[in-house]
Amino acid sequence: PKEIATAAMTQVFKSMVESGTNNEIVVEIYPNGVLGNERESMEQVQTGVTQSYIASGGGMSIFYPLFSIVNIPFSITDYSVAYEVYDGPFGSELAKDIEVKTGFKVLAFGESGGFFQLTNSKRAVQKPEDMKGLKIRTMTIPIHMEFMRSLGASATPIAWAEVYTSLQTGVVDGQHNPAPIIKIGKLEEVQKYLSLTNHMYTPYVWVINSEWFNALTDQQKTVVEEAARVANIAGRGVNRLIETSDE
Protein backbone atom coordinates (compact mmCIF):
# COMPACT_ATOMS: atom_id res chain seq x y z
CA PRO A 1 0.00 0.00 0.00
CA LYS A 2 1.17 3.51 -0.82
CA GLU A 3 0.51 4.78 2.70
CA ILE A 4 3.05 2.52 4.42
CA ALA A 5 6.56 3.61 5.31
CA THR A 6 8.35 1.17 3.02
CA ALA A 7 6.46 2.57 0.03
CA ALA A 8 7.70 6.06 0.86
CA MET A 9 11.21 4.75 1.43
CA THR A 10 11.45 2.96 -1.90
CA GLN A 11 9.99 5.86 -3.88
CA VAL A 12 12.43 8.36 -2.35
CA PHE A 13 15.29 5.92 -2.89
CA LYS A 14 14.35 5.37 -6.54
CA SER A 15 14.11 9.09 -7.25
CA MET A 16 17.41 9.97 -5.59
CA VAL A 17 19.41 7.06 -7.03
CA GLU A 18 18.20 7.53 -10.58
CA SER A 19 18.68 11.30 -10.57
CA GLY A 20 21.99 11.07 -8.70
CA THR A 21 23.47 8.60 -11.18
CA ASN A 22 21.88 10.08 -14.33
CA ASN A 23 19.93 6.83 -14.68
CA GLU A 24 23.09 4.73 -14.72
CA ILE A 25 21.30 2.83 -11.94
CA VAL A 26 17.58 2.21 -12.51
CA VAL A 27 15.53 1.11 -9.51
CA GLU A 28 12.62 -1.28 -10.10
CA ILE A 29 10.21 -1.72 -7.17
CA TYR A 30 8.36 -4.99 -6.53
CA PRO A 31 5.88 -4.46 -3.66
CA ASN A 32 3.58 -6.74 -1.67
CA GLY A 33 5.69 -9.88 -1.87
CA VAL A 34 5.25 -10.35 -5.62
CA LEU A 35 8.68 -12.02 -5.87
CA GLY A 36 8.01 -14.52 -3.09
CA ASN A 37 7.79 -14.79 0.68
CA GLU A 38 10.33 -13.13 2.94
CA ARG A 39 12.83 -15.98 3.05
CA GLU A 40 12.67 -16.33 -0.73
CA SER A 41 13.07 -12.58 -1.24
CA MET A 42 16.14 -12.45 0.98
CA GLU A 43 17.66 -15.49 -0.69
CA GLN A 44 17.21 -13.72 -4.03
CA VAL A 45 19.30 -10.83 -2.70
CA GLN A 46 21.95 -13.21 -1.39
CA THR A 47 22.28 -14.91 -4.77
CA GLY A 48 22.10 -11.67 -6.77
CA VAL A 49 18.79 -12.37 -8.50
CA THR A 50 17.64 -9.07 -6.99
CA GLN A 51 19.84 -6.44 -5.40
CA SER A 52 17.95 -5.18 -2.35
CA TYR A 53 15.16 -5.93 0.12
CA ILE A 54 13.63 -4.35 3.23
CA ALA A 55 13.40 -7.20 5.74
CA SER A 56 11.30 -7.49 8.86
CA GLY A 57 12.92 -8.35 12.17
CA GLY A 58 11.57 -11.87 11.84
CA GLY A 59 12.97 -12.21 8.34
CA MET A 60 16.39 -10.97 9.40
CA SER A 61 16.42 -13.40 12.32
CA ILE A 62 16.18 -16.34 9.91
CA PHE A 63 19.57 -15.44 8.46
CA TYR A 64 21.07 -13.75 11.52
CA PRO A 65 19.57 -15.32 14.68
CA LEU A 66 21.31 -12.85 16.99
CA PHE A 67 19.01 -10.15 15.61
CA SER A 68 16.29 -11.48 17.92
CA ILE A 69 17.99 -9.60 20.75
CA VAL A 70 16.52 -6.31 19.48
CA ASN A 71 13.06 -7.62 20.44
CA ILE A 72 13.74 -7.47 24.19
CA PRO A 73 10.65 -5.72 25.65
CA PHE A 74 11.02 -2.15 26.91
CA SER A 75 14.71 -1.99 25.93
CA ILE A 76 14.03 1.14 23.83
CA THR A 77 12.21 3.92 25.67
CA ASP A 78 11.35 6.45 22.93
CA TYR A 79 12.04 7.34 19.30
CA SER A 80 15.03 9.56 20.04
CA VAL A 81 16.69 6.63 21.79
CA ALA A 82 15.76 4.27 18.95
CA TYR A 83 17.32 6.54 16.34
CA GLU A 84 20.43 7.10 18.45
CA VAL A 85 20.86 3.34 18.88
CA TYR A 86 20.30 2.23 15.29
CA ASP A 87 21.82 5.25 13.52
CA GLY A 88 24.80 5.35 15.88
CA PRO A 89 27.76 3.15 16.88
CA PHE A 90 25.59 0.19 17.94
CA GLY A 91 23.81 0.14 14.59
CA SER A 92 27.10 0.47 12.74
CA GLU A 93 28.66 -2.47 14.56
CA LEU A 94 25.50 -4.54 14.16
CA ALA A 95 25.48 -3.83 10.41
CA LYS A 96 29.12 -4.91 10.12
CA ASP A 97 28.46 -8.18 11.93
CA ILE A 98 25.38 -8.89 9.79
CA GLU A 99 27.49 -8.45 6.66
CA VAL A 100 30.26 -10.71 7.96
CA LYS A 101 27.83 -13.45 9.02
CA THR A 102 25.33 -13.28 6.12
CA GLY A 103 26.84 -11.40 3.20
CA PHE A 104 24.08 -8.78 3.34
CA LYS A 105 25.26 -5.18 3.39
CA VAL A 106 22.92 -3.12 5.58
CA LEU A 107 21.84 0.18 4.03
CA ALA A 108 19.69 1.27 6.98
CA PHE A 109 17.67 0.16 9.98
CA GLY A 110 14.17 1.26 9.05
CA GLU A 111 10.76 1.04 10.66
CA SER A 112 7.81 -1.25 10.24
CA GLY A 113 5.73 1.35 12.03
CA GLY A 114 7.44 2.25 15.29
CA PHE A 115 6.61 0.97 18.75
CA PHE A 116 4.39 -2.07 19.22
CA GLN A 117 0.93 -1.58 20.72
CA LEU A 118 -1.62 -4.15 21.87
CA THR A 119 -5.19 -4.69 20.67
CA ASN A 120 -7.82 -7.20 21.75
CA SER A 121 -11.55 -7.84 21.64
CA LYS A 122 -12.14 -8.85 25.27
CA ARG A 123 -11.19 -6.10 27.71
CA ALA A 124 -9.11 -3.01 28.33
CA VAL A 125 -5.54 -3.91 29.25
CA GLN A 126 -4.27 -1.41 31.81
CA LYS A 127 -1.97 -3.60 33.90
CA PRO A 128 -0.06 -6.86 33.33
CA GLU A 129 -2.71 -8.91 35.14
CA ASP A 130 -5.27 -7.92 32.50
CA MET A 131 -3.40 -10.06 29.96
CA LYS A 132 -4.15 -13.33 31.75
CA GLY A 133 -6.06 -15.77 29.59
CA LEU A 134 -6.00 -13.72 26.38
CA LYS A 135 -5.08 -15.45 23.14
CA ILE A 136 -2.62 -13.17 21.34
CA ARG A 137 -1.36 -13.46 17.78
CA THR A 138 2.39 -13.00 17.43
CA MET A 139 4.99 -13.42 14.74
CA THR A 140 7.17 -16.54 14.82
CA ILE A 141 9.73 -14.77 17.00
CA PRO A 142 10.50 -16.62 20.27
CA ILE A 143 10.94 -13.45 22.35
CA HIS A 144 7.52 -12.17 21.21
CA MET A 145 5.85 -15.44 22.17
CA GLU A 146 7.66 -15.75 25.49
CA PHE A 147 6.79 -12.16 26.41
CA MET A 148 3.08 -12.85 25.96
CA ARG A 149 3.30 -16.07 27.95
CA SER A 150 5.14 -14.28 30.76
CA LEU A 151 2.10 -12.01 31.10
CA GLY A 152 -0.30 -14.94 31.37
CA ALA A 153 -1.53 -14.83 27.78
CA SER A 154 -1.18 -17.58 25.20
CA ALA A 155 0.85 -16.82 22.06
CA THR A 156 -0.28 -18.05 18.65
CA PRO A 157 1.94 -17.42 15.60
CA ILE A 158 -0.24 -16.54 12.59
CA ALA A 159 0.80 -15.22 9.18
CA TRP A 160 -0.07 -11.56 8.63
CA ALA A 161 -2.37 -12.39 5.72
CA GLU A 162 -4.55 -14.41 8.11
CA VAL A 163 -4.57 -12.01 11.07
CA TYR A 164 -7.75 -10.07 10.23
CA THR A 165 -9.81 -13.24 9.73
CA SER A 166 -8.33 -14.90 12.81
CA LEU A 167 -9.33 -11.91 14.94
CA GLN A 168 -12.74 -11.71 13.31
CA THR A 169 -13.55 -15.38 13.92
CA GLY A 170 -12.09 -15.54 17.43
CA VAL A 171 -9.20 -17.85 16.67
CA VAL A 172 -7.25 -15.30 18.70
CA ASP A 173 -8.45 -12.46 20.92
CA GLY A 174 -5.79 -9.91 20.07
CA GLN A 175 -2.46 -9.07 18.51
CA HIS A 176 0.42 -6.62 18.82
CA ASN A 177 1.85 -4.39 16.13
CA PRO A 178 2.88 -0.77 15.58
CA ALA A 179 -0.05 1.65 15.22
CA PRO A 180 0.47 2.27 11.46
CA ILE A 181 0.31 -1.48 10.79
CA ILE A 182 -2.85 -1.78 12.90
CA LYS A 183 -4.40 1.07 10.93
CA ILE A 184 -3.35 -0.23 7.51
CA GLY A 185 -4.70 -3.67 8.40
CA LYS A 186 -8.03 -2.12 9.48
CA LEU A 187 -7.83 -4.16 12.65
CA GLU A 188 -10.03 -1.65 14.47
CA GLU A 189 -12.92 -3.28 12.61
CA VAL A 190 -12.41 -6.52 14.55
CA GLN A 191 -10.79 -5.24 17.75
CA LYS A 192 -12.50 -3.25 20.51
CA TYR A 193 -9.56 -2.26 22.73
CA LEU A 194 -6.23 -0.58 21.98
CA SER A 195 -3.56 -0.31 24.67
CA LEU A 196 -0.66 2.08 23.99
CA THR A 197 2.03 -0.01 25.63
CA ASN A 198 5.13 0.87 23.54
CA HIS A 199 6.51 -2.47 24.66
CA MET A 200 8.80 -3.22 21.69
CA TYR A 201 10.67 -1.41 18.95
CA THR A 202 11.83 -3.81 16.24
CA PRO A 203 13.51 -2.20 13.23
CA TYR A 204 13.30 -3.34 9.65
CA VAL A 205 16.66 -4.09 8.03
CA TRP A 206 17.27 -2.67 4.57
CA VAL A 207 19.80 -4.98 2.93
CA ILE A 208 21.63 -4.94 -0.38
CA ASN A 209 23.75 -7.52 -2.17
CA SER A 210 27.34 -6.82 -1.10
CA GLU A 211 28.95 -8.01 -4.33
CA TRP A 212 26.69 -5.77 -6.42
CA PHE A 213 27.32 -2.78 -4.16
CA ASN A 214 31.08 -3.28 -4.11
CA ALA A 215 31.16 -3.26 -7.93
CA LEU A 216 29.77 0.30 -8.02
CA THR A 217 31.98 3.34 -8.48
CA ASP A 218 32.75 5.38 -5.37
CA GLN A 219 30.37 8.09 -6.56
CA GLN A 220 27.56 5.59 -7.14
CA LYS A 221 28.11 4.07 -3.69
CA THR A 222 27.80 7.52 -2.13
CA VAL A 223 24.56 8.18 -4.02
CA VAL A 224 23.06 4.83 -2.98
CA GLU A 225 24.00 5.24 0.69
CA GLU A 226 22.76 8.84 0.87
CA ALA A 227 19.52 7.90 -0.88
CA ALA A 228 18.93 5.13 1.66
CA ARG A 229 19.65 7.50 4.56
CA VAL A 230 17.17 10.11 3.32
CA ALA A 231 14.59 7.48 2.38
CA ASN A 232 14.80 6.01 5.88
CA ILE A 233 14.07 9.42 7.39
CA ALA A 234 11.08 9.76 5.04
CA GLY A 235 9.75 6.38 6.16
CA ARG A 236 9.98 7.34 9.81
CA GLY A 237 8.18 10.59 9.03
CA VAL A 238 5.31 8.73 7.37
CA ASN A 239 4.94 6.55 10.46
CA ARG A 240 4.82 9.54 12.80
CA LEU A 241 2.14 11.15 10.61
CA ILE A 242 0.04 7.98 10.66
CA GLU A 243 0.40 7.69 14.44
CA THR A 244 -0.95 11.22 14.97
CA SER A 245 -3.67 11.04 12.31
CA ASP A 246 -7.31 11.05 13.39
CA GLU A 247 -8.42 9.10 10.33
TrEMBL record:
One of its GO terms (cellular component) is outer membrane-bounded periplasmic space. GO terms for molecular function: carbohydrate binding. It holds the Pfam family DctP. InterPro entries: DctP_fam (IPR018389), TRAP_DctP (IPR004682), TRAP_DctP_sf (IPR038404). One of its GO terms (biological process) is transmembrane transport. Keywords: Signal. Gene3D superfamilies: Bacterial extracellular solute-binding protein, family 7. This is C4-dicarboxylate ABC transporter substrate-binding protein. The lineage of its organism: unclassified sequences, metagenomes, ecological metagenomes.
